[in-house]
Amino acid sequence: FDNLMEFLFDVNLVLPDSITIVSSSDVADWSNLHLPNNARQNQKYEHLSTIIDEMGIASAKAQKLKVPITSFLKFKCSNHRLYLMKDCNSVAGLLKVGVKQLFLCDEKETLHECHPLCVLDFYIHESKQRNGNGKKLFQKMLENENVSVHQLAIDRPSQKMLAFLSKHFLLKNPINQINKFVVFKDFFLNLAVTK
Ligand code: ACO
After folding, report:
1. Cα torsion at 64, 69, 70, 71 (round to 10°)?
2. CB-based contacts of 21-25 (< 8 A; 24+ apart in sequence)
3. Which protein residue's CA is at the shortest distance from atom 2 of ligand 1?
4. CA–CA separation, 16 vs 31, rounded Å?
5. What is the model's pTM?
6. Does the beta carbon of 181 sit less than 6 angstroms from any atom of ligand 1?
7. Residue 155's pLDDT is what?
């Protein structure tokens, strides 16, 4: 399934919606349901884990990372949410977000302690990039998380990601941080200064 993110099972059983939202707590609940007499649920759980692992590996490859930042095991123990996009029986994309405590510098070099929602991983399958799929997935996340794009911190954005944010959300002049996160000017509106 290198050409298309297709699996040997029906992804529609695991991903019911065109964009399915999975939070780590859902997965933890499923593990508690991991009972011998619950074969269907167990299979769904195994298939979800395969999808997340394979998408994590593909995303890492696309970003030239040595180790995937997204795997089922890491996700299960996190406070993250995953947005998984499907297209017929293939998986088209993944977007992972979560709140983190960060120390971020504004343009005047003032340090702020904050707990923003962070974009941690974002990937659209190569065969489906530059078709508006990334924007659809991102918009769905913004709506569901009830945040504006300028309130986000972006973890190690790629050049494609910076181009994406500039094109769709007019976010320009990224403020690079030592911790490799990037925020944009309006992020610091309404944030309290830490001493
Ligand atoms: N080169 C430069 N810009 C690109 C490229 C590219 N190859 N692909 C997408 N973009 C940017 C451009 O601004 C493009 O607009 P244009 O075609 O007019 O130049 C715009 O994205 C297209 O928007 P969409 O079609 O909505 O986005 P897409 O479906 O391509 O998804 C994404 C964007 C997720 C960045 C995708 O290109 C991808 O998976 N890239 C590889 C992995 C990656 O870099 N992920 C982001 C890592 S950063 C992070 O996860 C926090």
Report:
1. 100
2. 21/81, 21/82, 21/83, 21/84, 21/140, 21/144, 22/48, 22/81, 22/82, 22/84, 23/80, 23/81, 23/82, 24/75, 24/76, 24/77, 24/78, 24/79, 24/80, 24/81
3. 160
4. 19
5. 0.95
6. no
7. 98
